[in-house]
């Protein structure tokens, strides 16, 4: 029984992450018919080239390119925590932004 794709509210306003609960998260790359094509949300920070897609009806994820990093199961709880706090602790999450400039804003 495969895990079904779940949509999570992303770090940025209006963004959505997709996950099957294995510690990897994906952003929507494009939609073609009833199939959504995803790319890893770490494509910016880790230059991860992972790709996956799923049919919106079955929600069974098929990964076509594997990740170049370890799963990060804690991201999901950070997302939930962040939305619970309504962005007040946004600074703490800057390291999760998909910036490849290495510009961190810890005080
Ligand atoms: Zn990845």
UniProtKB/TrEMBL annotation:
Keywords recorded for this protein, A-Z: Metal-binding, Zinc, Zinc-finger
Stretches assigned to the FLYWCH-type domain: 22-69
InterPro entries: Znf_FLYWCH
One matching Pfam family: FLYWCH
GO molecular function terms noted in the UniProt entry: zinc ion binding
Protein name: FLYWCH-type zinc finger-containing protein 1
Source organism of the structure: Frankliniella fusca
């Amino acid at each position: 029984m495969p895990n079904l794709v779940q949509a999570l509210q992303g770090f940025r306003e209006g963004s959505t992450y997709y996950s099957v609960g294995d510690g990897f998260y994906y952003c929507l790359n494009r939609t073609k018919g009833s199939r959504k094509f995803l790319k890893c949300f770490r494509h910016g920070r880790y230059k991860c080239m992972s790709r996956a897609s799923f049919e919106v009806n079955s929600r069974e994820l098929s990964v076509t390119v594997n990740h170049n990093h370890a799963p990060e199961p804690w991201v999901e709880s950070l997302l939930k925590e962040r939305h619970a706090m309504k962005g007040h602790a946004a600074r703490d999450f800057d390291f999760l932004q998909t910036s490849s400039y290495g510009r961190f804003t810890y005080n």
